[in-house]
From TrEMBL:
Keyword hit for Ion transport: no
Organism the protein comes from: Streptomyces katrae
PANTHER family: GLUTAMINE AMIDOTRANSFERASE DUG3-RELATED (PTHR43187:SF1)
Alphabetical keyword list: Glutamine amidotransferase
Protein name, per record: Class II glutamine amidotransferase
Matches recorded under Pfam families: GATase_4
Location of the Glutamine amidotransferase type-2 domain: 2-266
Amino acid sequence: MCRWLAYSGSPMLLDAVLYQPEHSLIDQSLHARMGVESTNGDGFGIGWYSTDGDGTPAVFRDIGPAWNNRNLRELASHVRSPLFFAHVRASTGSAIQQTNCHPFRHGRWLWMHNGSITDFHRLQRDLCMAVDPALFPCIEGSTDSEVMFYLAVTFGLDQDPPGAVARMAGLVERLGKEHGVADPLQMTVAVSEGERVWAFRYSSQGRSRSLYYSSRAETVRQLYPELPYLRSVSDETRLVVSEPLGDLPGVWNELPEASYVVVPSDGPEDYLPFIPELP
């Protein structure tokens, strides 16, 4: 499978999140603790939004491992962003090529995924036929993750991100049932349009891959007032990660099964239930 993180909040150097933490994403690319594989070296990608751009994110992806990529290290030490995605890949069978590396981009949207569609080769044609014909030429790679993205775009990602992802999941499960595929969907997904991050944890089997979100910044400040970097981040600053980046008690919270989180939050709830819908 894969490991990923999403950051939203005060503009920050990518290096501070990708490299500096004790169990950073770069460390997870070699020593994942909670993934199916401990090594995630089949490519990587980052996507980020700038404070003075046109709203379209920049993307940098490569097929080599993240842990020894000099260009990634160079970018991370110079790019500062208020919202960015990062992903390290362990292929589930699709080719190791740049177009299969996450995050995927369409217009202002970024998307990344950990998990799989079971027996994707059996469902692929029907899933692709459900993609808006105007969007189909945008699919560049061969992964189930990218098809899931364009299904969500087809089902109204611009208007209703949680609903669009729910309809994508509902279609996968319906087609899985029609083709005799048990437990077709396994996913942790992050998606953003540059203002918010939506992150989902769901599987047909009810045993989803790991996903955590950070506690609210004011809570962490109260727990650890001695940490200097907490003084410079906004109250809205939060992370969603496949694995905690460190072991400080009270900082990381497991996202429950069949739920999703929105950053910045819509209200007092940290997370909301996620239920697939038929499109």
